[in-house]
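Aim 2 progress update. The chain analyzed this quarter is reproduced below.
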Amino acid sequence: MAELIVTTFLSLDGVYQGPGGVEEDTSGGFDLGGWVTPFYEDDMAAYATEWLSKAGALLIGRRTYDIFVQYWPKATDPDNAIAVAMNDLPKYVASRTLSSSDWSGVSFVNGDVVEFVRELKGRPGGEIQVHGSGDLLQTLIAHDLVDEYRLWFYPVVLGKGRKLFPEGVTPKSFTHVETRQTSTGANVLVLRPAGKPRHDTFQLVTE
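Predicted structure tokens:
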């Protein structure tokens, strides 16, 4: 069975909105976009290339699709492994309004995305990778469909914006798989869900 893997960029205060460009996502009046771009370097590209090589398909939301489709079909360098993967992999896009695309490999999920993902995870193949797609992620997280998180934390605090784990999310705990660091200070936490958090109280030790 295929596993669903989430890759997302986060500020230290948990914001995922608009990491790649000033005008990428200005919804809700967000005017702090492009906060990841200054940290881009070779480590980031190497990790992305390594992990994309494990993908059997991409699952993305409508907003992320609109961003990706403006760039990746134009990236045709055969030596760019990230571009090759993005263009060659099957891409499932959650959208209630779109039904066709000029980008190769795109299929639209117009119905119940939860049931579709459950069926997709039952197929053999490589990882089903979700990149960006914050609204879609909220649905996948709420239905416990995520098998692994690759969370890229960048050394910035934004103070506003949409968060991956917003107020009111169901409490969760995770098992640590791996930590990586880039030369510009990003830390990547690889985590797997481990049920509900455990709670206890520190006890005073006296002699």
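Residues 42-52 form the longest helix (11 residues). The chain has a mean pLDDT of 94. These observations will guide the mutagenesis experiments scheduled for the next reporting period.
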